[in-house]
């Protein structure tokens, strides 16, 4: 199974991707997580990426395409993968197609999580992430048992640098301008599956499961 999980910032891509990869045993590849790990390690890639991420802009295509090329040619991606946060531009989508064509592979479905802007702001401003294991929480919609600490590993929870209200606004604009046009691209290919992203995390997961089982 080769999937793309698509949608605006804060739609719930990461949250659903974790559930899908657990249930279907596919590798979860999140470009945002990869970039944040590089920022934390202080690598050259991290330093470069941070200048874009802090403003809510996209990291240049050639950098991101290089990262993906490396990941999807590894052994553990052979059974399938789930791309979260990639592709985000037409150029990235075309590069992905080329990479997969070479291996005789293709994307099966693009799951597009549809959420309005008001809900996005609520979701992003309440998001908290574990500094140790990366698990995601929401202070109202998906709170940890002990406020401020991760249920899974006890790590401290923090707010992402790009989750301030003004950066969110830029991220949304960037999404509308550069990323949303990809829906047309995948609709043409016939693999775009729209999912209502409102409701609880489990409601949304149930809708996605129906699609993956081919019953929706
Ligand atoms: P990235 O990390 O991909 O961020 P994003 O696309 O802005 O999306 P988010 O991770 O913010 O949201 P999400 O959809 O994963 O939502 P989540 O599940 O966390 O990218 C960050 C930056 O990196 C970019 O701005 C760019 O600079 C760079 N970058 C990354 N990829 C790139 C690429 N391909 N090209 C160029 N640059 C790239 O959920 C959000 C919150 O809502 C959580 O708190 C969660 O608990 C809660 N929640 C989830 N579902 C529900 C629900 N159903 N009900 C209530 N609450 C919910
Ligand atoms: Mg995410
Ligand atoms: Zn944790």
Report what the structure shows.
The structure is a single chain. The mean pLDDT is about 95. The protein contains nine helices and eight strands. The protein is an alpha/beta fold and about 220 residues long. The chain starts with a strand and ends with a helix. Strands 2-3-1-4-8 form a five-stranded parallel sheet, sandwiched between helices. It has one domain: P-loop containing nucleotide triphosphate hydrolases (Rossmann fold), CATH 3.40.50.300. A hairpin with a 5-residue loop joins strand 5 (about 125-130) and strand 6 (about 135-140). The relative contact order is 0.18. BIS(adenosine)-5'-pentaphosphate binds near residues 7, 15, 52, 92 and 136.
Structure summarized in a few sentences:
The chain has 216 residues and is an alpha/beta fold. The protein contains nine helices and eight strands.
Q: Compute the number of structural domains.
A: 1
> Rounded to an integer, what's the Rg over CA atoms?
17 Å
Shape summary? globular
CATH C-level name: Alpha Beta
Helices, by number, come to: 9
Write the layout of secondary structure elements.
Layout: E1 2-6, H1 13-24, E2 27-30, H2 31-41, H3 44-53, H4 61-72, E3 81-84, H5 90-102, E4 109-114, H6 117-125, E5 127-130, E6 136-138, E7 157-158, H7 165-179, H8 182-189, E8 192-196, H9 201-212
Parallel strand pairs: 1-3, 1-4, 2-3, 4-8
Antiparallel strand pairs: 5-6, 5-7
Bound molecules: BIS(adenosine)-5'-pentaphosphate (AP5), magnesium ion and zinc ion.
């Amino acid at each position: 199974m080769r999937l793309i999980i698509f949608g605006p910032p804060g739609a719930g891509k990461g949250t659903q991707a974790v559930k899908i990869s657990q249930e279907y045993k596919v590798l979860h590849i999140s470009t945002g997580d990869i970039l944040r790990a590089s920022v934390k390690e202080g690598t050259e890639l991290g330093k470069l990426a941070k200048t874009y991420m802090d403003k809510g802009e996209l990291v240049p295509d050639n950098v991101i395409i290089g990262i993906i090329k490396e990941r999807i040619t590894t052994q553990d991606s052979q059974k399938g993968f789930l791309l979260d946060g990639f592709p985000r531009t037409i150029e990235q989508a075309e590069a992905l197609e080329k990479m997969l064509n070479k291996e005789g592979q293709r994307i099966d479905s693009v799951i597009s999580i549809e959420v309005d802007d008001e809900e996005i702001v609520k979701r992003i401003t309440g998001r908290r992430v574990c500094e140790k294991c990366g698990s995601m929480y929401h202070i109202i919609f998906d709170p940890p048992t002990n406020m401020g600490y991760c249920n899974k590993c006890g790590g401290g929870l923090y707010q992402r640098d790009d989750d301030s209200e003004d950066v969110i606004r830029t991220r949304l604009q960037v999404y509308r301008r550069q990323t949303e046009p990809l829906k047309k691209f995948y609709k043409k290919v016939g693999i775009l599956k729209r999912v209502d992203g409102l409701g609880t995390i489990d409601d949304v997961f149930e809708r996605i499961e129906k699609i993956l089982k081919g019953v929706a």
